[in-house]
Write a structure and sequence with these properties.
CATH superfamily: Ankyrin repeat-containing domain
CATH architecture: Alpha Horseshoe
Radius of gyration: 16 Å
Largest sheet: none
Oligomer: single chain
CATH topology: Serine Threonine Protein Phosphatase 5, Tetratricopeptide repeat
Number of helices: 8
CATH class: Mainly Alpha
Keywords: ANK repeat, Repeat
Pfam families: Ank_2
Helix content: 40-55%
Structural class: mainly alpha
InterPro entries: Ankyrin_rpt, Ankyrin_rpt-contain_sf
Order of helices and strands: HHHHHHHH
Organism: Paludisphaera mucosa
Protein name: Ankyrin repeat domain-containing protein
Length: 160
Amino acid sequence: MYGGLTKLAHEGDEAGVRRMLDEGVPADAIDNGRFNATPLQAAAGAGHLEIVELLLDRGANVNHVDNDGFSPVTTAARAGKWQVVKLLAAHGGDFRTPDATGRNGHDYVRRCRGARTRAAIQAALERRGVAPATDPGATEPLETRSSHPAGAESGEGETS
């Protein structure tokens, strides 16, 4: 499905990603046909935090949207890669634009069972001036509530 830099990013080959970037391959190189996914999106969905950070440091577009309507934020969040989501939030990730399923980053964050992780993501967004998200009809921001929807994903065993 992926090739080149995107494949290395998806597989978690940090040394290979660094080598290709050092050789001049653009951080947003797209080499996967119809999907139009960037290396950042591939690494984010696979949960490779160090590679996501490297790609962001090298100028990757945090808000690129692929041909199926998914961004690094929605890709990582759909996969339950909450530490990656937190990093993307700190780097300007768009949590408001819906993906192909009609969900946005805030919708996915509601699925995170780790209260501290959810609060850390929200704090990163608030530092950027993004208003707290609430469930429809709720009056409290996400981070202040303790109940979780049935079937919500865990925080990947995360405790922070």
